[in-house]
Amino acid sequence: MALPSKLDQQLCFELYKASSNFTKLYARTLEPFNLTFPQYLVLLVLWEEDHLLTKDIGNRLGLGIGTLNPIISRMIAQGRLIKRQSDEDKRAYVLSLTQKAQEEKEAIEQAIYDKVINCNFIDMSAITLMKNLKQLNLAFSDMDL
Amino acid sequence: MALPSKLDQQLCFELYKASSNFTKLYARTLEPFNLTFPQYLVLLVLWEEDHLLTKDIGNRLGLGIGTLNPIISRMIAQGRLIKRQSDEDKRAYVLSLTQKAQEEKEAIEQAIYDKVINCNFIDMSAITLMKNLKQLNLAFSDMDL
DNA sequence: AACATTTATATCGTGTACGATATAAATACT
DNA sequence: AGTATTTATATCGTACACGATATAAATGTT
């Protein structure tokens, strides 16, 4: 019987490396803002829709509370987020952007544009790549992983 | 001027999620063997070529010593690896598979085959995906990231 | 209303992952 | 040979990332 194909081994590995490379690239770009990549993802979510519950952010990023909570705590300490107990549900907490976090949006997006988008390789075949990745993640979401 | 494109934001995010999903899938498959995904990657490397130096494994996996060393230490404690000081270069250490690690290769490959390869989504468009990912990682390697 | 279950968050333990610093051995240079 | 630089590994500090457990509030059941 066929053993794990080379293909599969390479796929998981290429994905692992690509994600790591991308994270490193973003990390360097975000360092001047004293931001990590996961923290930036939280900002992306809240820039799109502010005043979300912890679980909402977790759902959108696919992160559990054990990962998200420390990230949020640090972002509160940084003065980027504010946490308020929800009125409707006293178990839940509403996360909101501070003025600082709202104002730095443009500068951060510009930095990403300069350093990341200008890496021409993004254009390569990003459409196909994205399509495949989305299909992949869709398949995972149907797997109750 | 165009802000960071939606495309880019989605690309980095889809990659992040896909890698995380894959790692989780592998983690579950490898758990019965008391193996983590990065530890499995070290085994993959050494199954292909045994008796490598720490730096060789690091190069092939794209991992620094700060990440790799704790992984190797745990694998030694697990009885999977043996570490011997190199004769040619007394700074370097040769990592070798124990008999246990050699013998469990088949069983682990079978487990991966059953749980991962049988996820039909692998077939989808893995060829295209792989090609794009390799291109991406090649571009990164030219960036002294 | 009393109780059981579910849900939202919190905390803990283990294991990456990276950058910075430290150390000893090897190599290059004068 | 003696010194400077590079190289291979080790250790540390910070920050994810996940699963397990804990707690309190909300919901469902009888």
TrEMBL record, chains A, B:
It is found in: Cytoplasm. Keywords: DNA-binding, Transcription, Transcription regulation. It comes from the Bacteria. GO terms for molecular function: DNA binding; DNA-binding transcription factor activity. It holds the Pfam family Staph_reg_Sar_Rot. Residues 8-145 form the HTH marR-type domain. PROSITE patterns: HTH_MARR_2 (PS50995). The keyword Transcription regulation applies. Belongs to the SarZ family. This is HTH-type transcriptional regulator SarZ. It comes from Planomicrobium soli.
